[in-house]
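USER: My hope is that you can spare some time for a protein that puzzles me. I am handing you a single protein, as its sequence and its fold in C-alpha cell form. Walk me, if you will, through where the backbone shape changes along the chain. The protein I mean follows directly.
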Amino acid sequence: MTSVLDQLKQWTTIVADTGDFKSIDQYGPQDATTNPTLILNATNNPRYDYLINSAIEYAKGKVSSNEKAIELAADKLLVNFGFEILKIIPGRISVEVDAKLSFDTEGTITKARHLIDLFEEIGVDKSRVMIKIASTWEGIQAAKILEKEGIQCNMTLLFSFIQAVACAEAGVTLISPYAGRILDWHIKNIKKTYKSNEDPGVISVTKIYNYYKKVGYKTIVMGASFRNTEQIEELAGCDFLTISPKLLTQLQCSHKKIERKLSPNTDPMATEKLTEGIRSFAQDGRTLMLMLKQRLNKEETMITEKISEDIDLDDKTTPWWQKSLTDFGVEMYGKYKLPAFIGESGSSRGYKKFEDSSR
C-alpha cells in the first residue's frame, strides 16, 4: 500500500523543514527550508561542530572587529548548512535574513545580496537559493527589488490574505503561509478545538491558494508550520508543503488512502461546461465545413457534366482538341458566351479574327 507521503507527492512538491540535514535524505524532498531556530537546534548536535568551526574561522579571516566577525560567522553558518543540504536535495534551499531587518528594506536587500555572494563564493548558483524574508511591508518592497535582480524570495511569517496578495503583486517566487501558528492563535484566543476541515490555518492557506489560481498569480503557495498530519492532508494538492522530519516520518509510516483537496481547477462546473462547449462547437464547425465541401464539389461536378454534354466527342469534324486555340475560343463564345481572349500565337490578330467571326 502506498504511503501517505508518496500519495502527497503525486500532487504536491514536498519540502523538508529542518537544519538537520542528516535526516533529510530518507524522505526524498525536492527542496528544503531552514530558519535561525532550526539551525540553532541543529548546532546542539556535536556532529555539526565542524560547520560551526568553519564559519568562525572564515569570519576571523575576513574582519577584525569582533562584532562584525560574529555577524559574518552567523551568515556563513547558514550558508554552510545550506551547502550541505544542497548536496542531498535536487532543488533549492531557503535561508533567512536576520529577523531584526524585518522593517528595514535596504538592510534586507543588502543582507540578501551578501548571502547570495557567500553561496556563489563556494560554487552554488543563485538559482538554487531562496532568501526568506518576513512578510512586512518593508520586506515585501525588498523582495520586489531582489526578484528583479534574479534573487528568488520566500516570503515567510505570512498570516493573512492581505499579506499574500501584496506578495503576489510584488512578483515574489514563493510565500509560506503559517497554518500551524494561525491555529495556535485561535486555540489560545478563541478557546476552541477544531476539526481538520475547520482548522483556521487550513482555511487560510486554502483561501490564498484558490485566489491565486483564480487570478492567475505565478507565486508558489507553500503551506508551512504544521502542527499535525491532518493539517497536511487537508492541504493535499497545494503547490508546496514544507514539513518537519517528525511529521514526514508519520506520513511515511501511514498507508491510509487520502484524496486531493486543492486543485488549480477551483470551479469544476465551469471547467466541465467550458470543455463540453468547446468540443460541441468544434464538432459542429467540422460538420459545417464538410457540408460546404460537399456542396462545392457537387456544383463543380454539375458544371463539368454540362460542358461534357455540349461537346460532341463523336463529332467527325475536326476534334476540338486539334482545333486552333482561336477557333476553339470562337466556338466557346458562341455556345457559352465566354469572352475570347486567346489569339493565334498570342498576337492581336486573334482578336480581329474573333470579331469577324462573331458578326
